[in-house]
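Q: Structure tokens for this one, please.
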Amino acid sequence: MKALLKKLLPLTLFAIAVTSLFSVQPAQAFTITLKEVGSNVVANGSGAFNVTGLTKEAGMFSTTTGIDGSAGFILTGTPGQTPFLDAYFGLTGPTNFGSGFFFPPDTGSGDFVGIFLISGARHIFVPAGYVSGTALSDSMTFNNKTFASLGVTPGTYVWSWGTGLANQNFTLIIGGAGVPDGSSTVSLLGFGLLGLAALRLKLPLLRRAKS
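A: Here is the predicted structure, written as tokens:
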């Protein structure tokens, strides 16, 4: 029986890894990552929100994309448009992420998502009619800019709300690495499977060395 269990262990671990590889993963919490790319600053946002625990502001709002470090404002999406947005308040977190003033992006695309202070309360902006759990993605680029010229301070800034459920936060990462994407996860699992295969091959050798 003991020998049988030793033989089944690698197969069991392999099955668990394969199941994890093909299981459907929920969208990650929404994160915007700012990076200096060449002579530009690029912002990429992706993820989802769970707005449970937040209060929806009456009416809809419309504003323009851009960034303002001293005001703690960032709104990603296509520039030159003022879309209708839903605003939610009831979150806590940093009041700013730098000392700079407002800068509009040169290019941008995707969903309009942001964070801003309205009447003394921090709000998140999402597309009008947004439903919790819906995946969002967007980007914008500031040509010929640096973190210093935009007046933003590198670091990780997190605003949160609710009772700690998944996706009850908004994260801004300036200068750091964001959440690993799906391909990175697949690559890591692939290395794990190779490691398990190697372990299975080595187990008989280890047993012989100890005997």
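A few notes: The chain has three helices and 14 strands. Confidence is low (pLDDT under 50) at residues 11-25, 177-211.
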